[in-house]
Amino acid sequence: MSVDSRHESKIREWMLATISNGGIERLDDLHIDHIDENWKQRTNWIPASISAYELAVMLQSNLGLNVQIALAFSLLDGTGQTFDTEEEFQSQLDWSPPSLYLFRAGDHKHLSKTVGFDPLPKTLASRFPPGTKSFLLQWATEYGTQRRSIFVEA
């Protein structure tokens, strides 16, 4: 079995299980390092997450699943709306590897904390499938810190 087919198999299994067992409501995600052990390395996070997202979008289409695929990047606490370079963006990633999420088609509640649109650097945004959009989400925690994430979806 090739690396790509192993990745595809893991993503397919997660998608079908998430849809069938209530995982959408629980916000069950799939961290990229659970798809491939080599994707634990921080330097692999961006290319690995793009690959995982593309595979998930392809599977969603091939399987005819009525869901929305999202890729989430968890960022360091703070503020900031855009990133000029991939290096700047990568330096803002927190300790958690990016992960895939599934949402019901047409459900946009997960974007309710959006404070910015298309915050990714153009060089990174151009590596995603055409029509992909990104959203910067920001919210206050109970401790007064500002949490941030970027969601990418078509």
Question: How does the SSE layout of this entry go?
Answer:
Blueprint: H1 3-20, H2 23-26, E1 30-31, H3 45-63, E2 67-75, H4 86-91, E3 99-104, E4 114-117, H5 122-125, E5 133-140, E6 146-153
Antiparallel strand pairs: 1-3, 2-3, 2-6, 4-5, 5-6
Helix pairs in contact: 1-3
Q: How many domains, in number, for the residues?
A: 1
**What is the tally of helical segments?**
5
Strands side by side in the biggest sheet: 1-3-2-6-5-4
Most strands sheet: 6 strands, antiparallel
Fraction of residues in β-strands: 15-25%
**On the 0-100 scale, what is the average pLDDT?**
94
Shape: globular
| Stretches with pLDDT under 50, minimum 5 residues | none
Radius of gyration of CA atoms, rounded to a whole number:
15 Å
Instruction: Give helix and strand order, one letter per element, not per position.
Output: HHEHEHEEHEE
Question: Tally of extended strands?
Answer: 6
Termini separation comes to 29 Å
